[in-house]
Amino acid sequence: MPAPEDDLALLEQAARAAGRIALEFWRQDPKSWEKPDDAGPVSEADLAVNEELHSILVGARPDYGWLSEESEADPARLDAQNCFIVDPIDGTRAFIAGQQGFSHSLAVARGDRIVAAVVYLPVSDLFYTAFADGPALLNGAPIAPSDHPIRDARVLTYRAAAEPRHWRGNTPPGFRREFRTSLAWRLCLAAEGKFDAALSLRAAWEWDIAAGSLIAERAGAAVTDRRGQRMRFNSPRAMVDGLIVAGPRLHGELQAALRS
């Protein structure tokens, strides 16, 4: 069985290839359309990147399962000891609009745990990596979360998460809400301390958060679902019950402030 470091090297190679393809389409008015059931937009670039990732990753590890936002569900992944979990382009709306804040999110799950992860933003050449028991790195340099308390913390989340109904005493805590389109990048920004936390009270697709969750964990952040439970991956639903990613102190304060 390949070591997590070897899987990480493969993910890095695939992420670079994904970036090259995405940049060929970026700001070139790629064809795009809405998925059924209000599942969001997809572009021809998403599909081209997905095809390349599948070719590189499954070509190198044919016994690994495959879970991707842009592939048909394959139940065989549930019986695989290892599984690739990828989002070919996370932040497709930003990509279609010609904005820079999209990423490629690639991870390997061993059982229900992530053991290797890459989040790559090709426009700005930001390359986040981590593997099990290893450091979290940004372009080769170690990263760490902030130690900010909840008051005036900069929290990456969507507008509805700050509504009083979600918080004890009907009063949202005094954090400052900000937003980035790519959920994978939000986790990495919390991991490197540029923001103090990433928060979602909605169920999140595994392909959006698998890579970022390991990067944040290896950076030293506390990483759980919205109820404070350990995240588990390659599940039948391919979803996690929300997320709280922050330095240990802020994570505890956010968890205590949320309604159960």
UniProtKB/TrEMBL annotation:
Q: Which CDD domains match?
A: CysQ
UniProt keyword rRNA processing present: no
Keyword Mitochondrion belongs to the record: no
Source organism, top-level taxon: Bacteria
Record keywords, A-Z: Magnesium, Metal-binding
Q: Which Pfam families match?
A: Inositol_P
Family assignment from sequence similarity: Belongs to the inositol monophosphatase superfamily.
Q: Which PANTHER family match?
A: INOSITOL MONOPHOSPHATASE (PTHR20854), INOSITOL-1-MONOPHOSPHATASE-RELATED (PTHR20854:SF4)
This chain's protein is named: 3'(2'),5'-bisphosphate nucleotidase CysQ
Q: Which organism is it from?
A: Paracoccus stylophorae
